[in-house]
Amino acid sequence: MTTKVDPDLCISCAICTNMVPDVFIMNDDGLAEAKPGDVPADLEDQVQEAMEECPADAIVIE
To answer: Which residues form the domain of 21?
Structure first.
């Protein structure tokens, strides 16, 4: 599983970075982004939950 954050939709609420800091970070522009690479298997459920909680629907799981 991989994930990304659509910068055009992100509202910088930091829900994802607070829920899964090993996958999501805030970049220099103050927007969330996913760290490169595959999501560790033990964090997949948390990433799914972060996607569901994102108020801007900015998280995409592939």
So the answer is: 3-61
Contact (Cβ atoms closer than 8 angstroms) between residue 12 and residue 30: yes
**pTM of the shown model:** 0.94
With 0-12 CB in 10 A as exposed, 13-18 as middle and 19+ as buried, what is 42?
exposed
The answer to whether 1 touches 54, Cβ cutoff 8 Å, is: no
pLDDT digits (tens, 9 = 90+) for 4-57: 999 999 999 999 999 999 999 999 999 999 999 999 999 999 999 999 999 999
CATH number reported for the structural domain that contains residue 31 in this entry? 3.30.70.20
Contacts of 38 by beta carbon, 8 Å cutoff, 6+ apart: 1, 2
Query: Among 26, 28, 24, which Cα is nearest to 61's?
Result: 24
